[in-house]
Design brief:
globular; single chain; four-stranded mixed sheet; alpha/beta
Length: 253
Amino acid sequence: MTELVHRSLAGGVATLTLDSPKNRNALSTGLLAELDSHLRQALDDDAVRVIVLTGAGPVFCSGADLKEQRDPSAAPVTTSLPDILTMIWKSPKPVVCRLNGTARAGGLGLVTACDFAIAPDTATFAFSEVRLGVVPAMIAVPVLRRVNPRAAAEYFLTGEVFGAARAVEIGLLNRAVPEEELDATVRHYTEMLVKGGPEALAITKVLVGELPAVPFEEGLRRMAELSAERFTSEEGQEGIAAFMAKRPPRWVP
């Protein structure tokens, strides 16, 4: 059986590669099942500090497998995609999306669920659902937490194709770089991320997602308590000791 998602591990970084280029890495039942499995393994593996999600071929992900969705006996994409998006969004380990190329529709759900997204500056994007008579429903949950609301409305409603520079401008991507700089840019992020304490990274991810909705004074109170807790934690004390001794903390691979 052909493997649709590959996993590799080096230097604390697990790379998950969508490898179904014949259908532009479409979100088929098989690909989603393998991605779910590899994500769970990466999250459970203490050797994994950072996860990179990428694809093979010229397209990162074209969205739902439309041929499969026409088959009434096939499982709908709604069966497993919500769990996958949730796993990525809530992952205590940072997730970096290395877009190898263009992304469309459901593929942009994967992009926006990740903490970081870097793409070649030649990549294009589109929320093409309405042109098919369907709706960008599930992916709207992470997309609307990343993308400027007016821009999201514009591209959700029109289905217009837009480029990488515009994707950075509206918050869909962190960076758009020349293709020859893609791997170096992704490595720049992963090398910084593995230097962070695992507990500190996980807590900071939650903080970034939840703190903006907390009232100002309550936020300050809660963050003062958290700060004191972290300075006295085992991980915090190790980080301070390592800094003072001018050595890497023990969590750095």
